[in-house]
Amino acid sequence: MRKFYDALDDLRVIRSQVARGTQFRGYGPASIAGSGLLAIAVAAVETRFAFAHAPALWVFLATWIATASAAIAFTGVETIRRARREHGGFAKDMIQAAAGQFLPAIAAGVLLTGVLLRFAPGSTWMLPGLWQVLFSLGVFASCRFLPRGMFMVGAWYLSAGLVCLALGDGPAALSPWTMGIPFGIGQVLVAVLLQFGYRRHDA
């Protein structure tokens, strides 16, 4: 019986190694492009209406946390469906490997937001830039099992985040466009690279 369980453990290790070394084809260009367009639309709507009715910080946080949650849910559904179709019996392992690359960046963003709100509310103007820098780290960590060119996306988010940090402490602090433009362009770029990468792989 012990040998049986050891064999199962070895099989899980092998599956995990195969998953980490295989290009992940579960991310859907449509849902990711949609999340970028959503970011631009939300920024436009927030610019037009939101700040007249509530304090900027809480409107900003509520709006973008809700937007991120919707984008993650939409992308997650398509990712599960595509992974099952593209990777078959390895779908679960591939999804876990992909999530393992990005979850630390997301968790760090959540914790950092909480710390700034609790202990340094005067520094919350930095949140858009910090979120983008952390997001870039998740992209860089995922590059090795995504189509070529994804490094450019990480560089885009890193550059956008640094620009927000450099210029964001002033009248433009917590502007909706500090989120709408970086994530709108970044996610559409991801979708384009995925689409061309998948086509090249299939050719």
Q: How is this structure best described in words?
A:
This protein is mainly α and 203 residues long. It has one domain (24-202). It has helices at 2-20, 29-49, 56-87, 91-119, 127-142, 150-167, 177-202. The longest helix is centred in the middle third of the chain and has 32 residues, at 56-87. The chain is elongated. Residues 4-11 have low confidence and may be disordered.
Descriptors:
7 helices, mainly alpha
Task: Output the helix-strand order.
Answer: HHHHHHH
Mean pLDDT: 84
Strand content: under 5%
Classify the helix fraction into a percent range: over 70%
Gross morphology = elongated
Main sheet record = none
Number of domains: 1
Low-confidence stretches: 4-11
Q: Supply Rg.
A: 19 Å
Assembly form of the protein: single chain
